[in-house]
Specification:
Elements (H helix, E strand, L loop, with lengths): L1 E6 L6 H12 L4 E7 L3 E6 L6 H10 L5
Antiparallel strand pairs: 1-3, 2-3
Length: 66
Amino acid sequence: MQTKMMNVTGMTYGGCVSKMTEAQTVVPAFGHVDVSLPHKATIDFDKKLTLIEYQQSAVKGASYGV
């Protein structure tokens, strides 16, 4: 597993943390996801099974910016 930290824009309250965490966990190659306000996400992922672009896509799909 590899760890990636991302700055995420648009998160303003606790519901955003839940939404972001859920968005990241739909990708099977992602492991532990830690999201905190106002704009940080730390994601463990299997580099052999996914690309960082998938993480960014999941963030954007949840209506946040990377």
